[in-house]
Design brief:
single chain, alpha/beta, seven-stranded parallel β-sheet, 9 strands
């Protein structure tokens, strides 16, 4: 990640070359080995990110709004650290405090897996037998309140509708959906329904629109299935030849990113989702949830993070002013950070 690469959507060099001056780095341990401690693994990932900061003087792990403003002023890439999936807490509130001390930017209570204290969107729709607590239990409520009290943004992307509703009732601070899109335009369980969009607006939070073709184009799944069949032998070869599961995953992602580009929807479909939120909730509640390298495909015209500026250009073509575009591209996020940390 410290050197310029040709695969994937980002590395530190390309991020620095792009128009991006803040990229959230996500600690994700939801697919851990059952024998591993999620808490220890998450800390190891924090350590690796902090080592990157020491080795690269053009990035800074920002922990406050002032940190973010200073990095932007000094042309340094801000890389706050968030956690997606509450596994590292291991049902202990002191573990949450530990990550708060390490500068936790936002917390997504679940990835696709439900936990003992919160249900995920995937399980609420596809795997109800995995749900131990439908919505938040007592510990889940404590997690939300502790985050509110300590300047940690709550991220509702990936959680279930019941969990979402509980957070609406409980949260005293703005909350966000960091990387979701619009259900009415593409009915995927990871997308937001209109009442959820308006609940986020009411909290003074924001929605980070996700450009993943599965989330923006209801026709993409059929096309993707055909491509996967076409390259199934290549995927199988990677599985057989590569023993390291992390390298195996990366190689498969790199293959898919290249092959799926031929069937990817237009970037205009992604802009449609941004504009839907603007028209429904207003320009102040929209952001970009790029999910770079968390995706196996981007829309056409978005090859990697160096193309991020095209989002702003497309919004300009649709008649939005420079001030409005600046809100979508980052100012709205700074407003939420200020509201949550005050």
């Amino acid at each position: 990640i410290s050197i310029r690469t040709e695969n994937g959507h980002s590395d530190l060099v390309r991020l620095k070359e792009s128009c991006i001056d803040l990229e959230v780095f996500v600690v994700w341990v939801s697919e851990k080995n059952s024998k591993e401690s999620a808490y220890l693994k998450a800390n190891a990932l924090y350590d690796k990110l902090e080592n990157l900061e020491k080795e690269n003087n053009f990035i800074k792990i920002t922990k406050t709004l002032d940190d973010i403003k200073d990095t932007i002023k000094n042309n340094i890439l801000a890389t706050p650290i968030a956690i997606e999936g509450g596994e590292p807490l291991e049902d202990k509130i002191e573990n949450l405090y530990h990550f708060i001390e390490r500068g936790l930017f936002y917390l997504g209570p679940t990835w696709n897996h439900s936990l003992s204290w919160v249900s995920s969107g995937y399980d609420e729709i596809h795997n109800k037998k995995n749900i131990q607590s439908l919505g938040l239990n007592k510990f889940g409520i404590e997690v939300i309140k502790t985050s509110n009290d300590n300047g940690v943004i709550i991220d509702v992307s990936h959680i279930g509708e019941k969990s979402f509703g509980d957070i609406v009732e409980i949260s005293s601070k703005p909350f966000i959906a960091s990387h979701s899109s619009v259900y009415n335009l593409c009915p995927h369980f990871r997308n937001l329904k209109d009442d959820q969009i308006m609940a986020i607006k009411k909290s003074e939070g924001l929605i980070g629109l996700n450009p993943y073709p599965f989330f923006i184009d209801p026709e993409f799944k059929k096309k993707e299935t055909m491509i996967r069949k076409k390259i199934s032998n290549q995927i199988e070869q990677i599985t057989l030849s590569e023993k390291n599961k992390h390298v195996r995953w990366i190689k498969k992602q790199n293959l898919l990113q290249k092959e799926l580009q031929s069937i990817a929807p237009s970037i205009e479909k992604f802009i449609d989702h941004i504009e839907y939120i603007i028209k429904l909730a207003g320009i102040d509640f929209v952001a970009i949830g790029s999910d770079y390298d968390g995706l196996d495909c981007l829309p056409k015209e978005l090859t990697d993070c160096c193309d991020h500026i095209k989002i702003a250009e497309k919004l300009e073509h649709r008649g939005y002013s420079e001030k409005e575009i600046e809100k979508v591209m980052g100012i709205n996020l700074l407003r939420v950070v200020e509201d949550v940390t005050n």
